[in-house]
Amino acid sequence: MKILLTSLLLLCALNLFSQMDKQLLKDIESIEDQVIEWRHDFHENPELSNREFETAKKIAKHLKSLGLEVQTEVAYTGVVATLKGDQPGKVVALRADIDALPVTERNDLPYKSEVITTFLGTETGVMHACGHDTHTAILMGVAEVLSKNKHLINGSVKFIFQPAEEGPPPGEQGGAKLMIKEGVLKNPEVDAIFGLHINSSTPVGTIRYKPGGTMAAVERFVIHVKGEGTHGSAPWTGVDPILISAKIIDGLQTIISREAKLVDEPAVITVGKITSGTRFNIIPETSEMIGTVRTLDADMRTMVIKRMTEMVPAIAKAYGGDAEIEFQNNTAVTYNDLELTAQMLPTLQNIAGDDKVELIKARTGGEDFSFFQEEIPGFYFFLGGMTPGNQTPYPHHTPDFKVDDAGLLLGVKTMSQLAIDYLNN
């Protein structure tokens, strides 16, 4: 009898949500053009990590216009706002990242970025080459529609506009770690958090997700190689740090290809930057390499870092030089809480359609949303941004990256309904 009564109450609640959602849907659809306009403005005026000053001002102005409690300068440039529903209850957080990348835009969008800056001593363009402009615009839209529908909310919604997801500049703190340190998950205390990432190779209208480990832990490493400088015509009179660097790169890849048990989880070691030398006929004294390690398993992470630490100086010594390696942890594993994921999956299916919600395998990209998930249950999913029929989508973090505005509306719908359903259930 008790089970039957519970089932009937749940059925009534679901029917009630269905009726109320009609008005919510109207409000969401009416704001689509505004969300796209915000996205274009942010895309045309991108700002790097911990430098999102104008972006933050625009966000804060909008949130204040909705009558929300707004905090600014959280983790330097972050903006946080809280919406109290008409009924008391739990607190759910919705997060969007707001920073851009040091990438010079190469596509032909009418709202293409022309911003130029100096990043780590090099002149570069600035571009939303990962879709954070869409995340920001989507969450601004969610804040507006939920503010108009407080009667649907049993509890509170905390909107977190996070700077520096791509990592703070060297020597600075930032991102999710700093927001947590400054108490973003407190006052009021957050019970769960949701986030999304638009994806250039996922068709518009599609949502992809994975329970458990979804994205990789990310380490940044720097390798300093020391040789002996000499004339390029007589390499036998010195020790070539560039040659040593090449051997180190080659050796590191054997950790992945011959030591990592890839049938369990993937792992990646990538050297992304090498700096050495000044002239074509001079063998320099030093070389520096910067790269990243991606792992989805704690034991594999430990093994890879241990072997890199052993291998780097050993290879350098074998060729007559010296080398040392330093690691910096950028993100933990983006881990979708199993219970929360199962609880919210029906919401995704209801909003996008069963056939448009796809289970995927883990990805070796990284996300500092993972630090929120270390503190409280969190759920992170991927939103389609690829124009239907596009056979050659450009990857994230590249000059040609682009996503379709048509994907934004589903983002607003999904984040809005996730917040409502979580609080009301």
What would you say this structure looks like, in words?
The chain contains 10 helices and 18 strands. It is an alpha+beta fold and 425 residues long. The radius of gyration is 24 Å and the shape is elongated.
Structure summary, number of beta strands: 18
> What's the overall average pLDDT, rounded?
94
Question: Approximately what portion of the residues adopt beta-strand conformation?
Answer: 25-35%
- The order of strands across the largest sheet is 1-2-6-3-7-18-8-17
Spatial extent as radius of gyration: 24 Å
Biggest sheet character: 8 strands, mixed
Count every helix, treating DSSP H or I runs of 4 or more residues as helices: 10
Residue share in helix: 25-40%
N-to-C span: 21 Å
Secondary-structure-based class equals alpha+beta
Large-scale geometry? elongated
**Uncertain parts:** 1-20
Write down the secondary-structure element order.
HHHEEEEEHEHEEEEEHEEEHEEHEHEH
Mind sketching the topology for me?
Layout lengths: L1 H29 L1 H13 L8 H13 L3 E6 L3 E7 L2 E11 L18 E4 L2 E4 L6 H16 L6 E9 L12 H7 L10 E12 L3 E3 L2 E4 L1 E10 L3 E2 L9 H19 L7 E10 L5 E2 L2 E10 L2 H21 L3 E10 L2 E3 L1 H15 L4 E3 L9 H7 L2 E9 L21 H17 L1
Parallel strand pairs: 3-6, 3-7, 7-18, 8-17
Antiparallel strand pairs: 1-2, 2-6, 4-5, 8-18, 9-16, 10-14, 10-15, 11-13, 12-14
Q: Can you give keywords for this protein?
A:
28% strand; 10 helices; eight-stranded mixed β-sheet; four-stranded antiparallel β-sheet; 425 residues; alpha+beta; elongated
